[in-house]
Amino acid sequence: MDMQDAADRADGILDAVLKHITPEVQWAHGPTTTGSCDVSRRRTVMTVISAERRGSFLGLVDRFWRKSGYRIKMVNKDVDFPAIYAQTEDGFGVSLTIGGEGQAFFEVDSPCVRESEVAASGTRANGPGYEGVYPLPRPNVRSPFWSVGS
How many CB atoms lie within 10 A of CB 134? Predict the structure, then answer.
């Protein structure tokens, strides 16, 4: 597996979890980074996840990852900034962290692979793409379900 293969696998992991979240959340691509032998893909959720819904959001993702055969390595139960860290059977690290204003961040990190060029993700964001914008804005999409009470 080379870095492009790893990036494609990471996109598949991210696509699967985001498709599983219902009601749907709006997301944008975060930066792709490469190291000497690894690659990371990120997706930033632009839907506000209210404090009242964070437990449900993390629980939904946790159950999906466990059902997918991922090993949950750590759960941070912080009230304001909870997170889940897991690992796929083929060694990819996956995480969901909640940041400021209820913004959710997904990240997938590959194991060490052969060096290669890495193209941008072929998956289209389901909202504004924010191409060339970094850092991405805080969450700015309201959901009748995920944003309740915020």
Answer: 8
C-alpha distance from residue 71 to each of 33, 34, 57 (Å): 24, 24, 18
Termini Cα distance of the chain? 43
Retrieve residue 53's tokens: 């819904």
- Delineate the domains of the chain, giving CATH numbers in brackets: 3-109 (3.30.160)
Reported as type and span, the H/E element at residue 108 is: strand 104-109
CA-closest candidate to residue 136, choices 69, 37, 47, 49: 47
Eight-state DSSP code of residue 79: S
pLDDT tens-digit readout, 87-145: 999 999 999 999 999 999 999 999 999 999 999 999 999 989 888 888 899 999 999 99
Tell me the whole-structure pTM to 2 decimals. Answer: 0.96
CA distance 71 to 91: 10
How far CA 140 is from CA of 26, 85, 119, in Å, comes to 10, 25, 28
